[in-house]
# Entry
Amino acid sequence: MENQKNRDYFKWLHRLLVFAGICLLIAWGKCGGNFSHFNGKNGRENPEDTKIAISVVETDEESGENEEGSLQEGTSPEESRERDALSRGIENLLKGSVEMARQILARKQDNGWEERTDNTWTGREEAPDQEEEMPGPPVIYLLSDLHYMSALATDYGKAFETFEAKSDGKVIRYLPQVLDALLEETVREKPDALVLTGDITMNGERINHEDLARKLSKVREAGVQVLVIPGNHDINNPDAGVYFGEKADKTDGVDPAGFWEIYGGFGPDQAISRDEGSFSYIYELRDDIWLALLDTAQYEPRNLVEGMVRPGTMAWLEENLQAAKEQGVQVIVLGHHNLLSESRMFTTMCTLENGRDMVSLLERYQVPLYVSGHLHLQRTNQHKKGPGDTGYGIYEIVSDAVSIPPCQYGVLTWMENGDMDYRTRPVAVESWAADHGETDENLLNFSAYGEAYIRQLVEEQIKGETKQVREKTAEEMARLYADVYADYCAGVEIDERERMRSWEYRQWENCWPQSDLAKDLRAMIGDCSRDYNAVTVPGMGGE
# Structure
């Protein structure tokens, strides 16, 4: 389109100059073929008109004399006045034409055109027509189980250390830095949305909620949509605490109204539909993609670990799924609790209590993907109706806890054919620490620190449970358990045959085969027969 405009400009300019030339020839004829009348004072061109130079003689309008005060030879005063009048008319015409031509050329020069040595003009390159830039494929960042503890909630003293030692591997001490690094990556990369799928605070402390919301506000102000739903830790949690001095103290949590007050601006206020009975809502990612964010936590009248989708919420969701189907919109559903059975180790309190009903509803509308958290494990799975089933079945992605090494989050990218590519990405804490001048060696070498931290923490916990076993044997058993646990959380493949043939595993079978820990060890090894950190999900239910 731009090239066509350029051609139109020059076609018009060409016609203008041809017309001016014709006028010049007429004037030449009227003046008896004498061009001297148009040559300026000494027949030289005006030095100011170097690109298009047309100079005219200055005349006395009243006397009809030239600048030297004399009539040209062989002309009567009447002829001279007639010729001068014609001259002035042509002069005005040419000056107007030249000025218009100059303006056009000046505009073209300002728009990136350059002058040739022969005083003609051309574009720098014959570039192809450029259409309006279209947005790229949608990308969302998936963050689960942050369990954020603000530096305002602890002095990192004895009470904190006691609490930290009992955790399941969360790098609680460095969660503010992990979060800052992740949010800085988000602002820099600008995905279409950053989605937090529950358990966003340690135990629902108001102080942690408010500090987290302040940090998320900076991402929203940078132009990235932040979407939040609660998990079982976030509302009406009786374990809300702060950690100063020798022991932990109770602190204020938040009720449903308080959660809405803090996080209403992170999704619900931008929703195209909201459920009246929960914190569930629909966010329009693109015209043809909706995100259905479900509040699966149970916190009234009391807080429970288990999750479910309320009957009213299911009815509301079905209405929106039907509307999406009619409009040809793809819907991705996200919640905190799991849709499918994802772990042989964690067999209770993880899958939705009405999970079968939810699977039936979502598959009825050909929903391709459900995203969850809660397990603190990285998992990808597809629902199968039975052995050998190769037909459509909804996929589930379970996001690893970003609070547990390798401290990773998910990146979900839509492809041109509507399929979705999912991959995990560790938070770049080390580069963030270097960029911000941190001197803590644990931050500057965070990958190595995190891997060592989770193994050492779990190893110490297991040794404390195996006191009836000889100390050296207990250490070896604990080391195996810790190694398997770290890989299990990260969702990486575990070589079942190699692990079960190891000397350390034989000690578990010989010394403590019926213990819950031995059963958990077998379950973890059996669960990780492949890597769970990448998957391609067919769009629109595999159609």
Residues 17 and 401 are 73 Å apart (CA to CA). Confidence is low (pLDDT under 50) at residues 1-14, 30-73, 103-128. The chain has three domains: 2-116, 139-440+530-542, 447-527. The two ends are 38 Å apart (CA to CA).
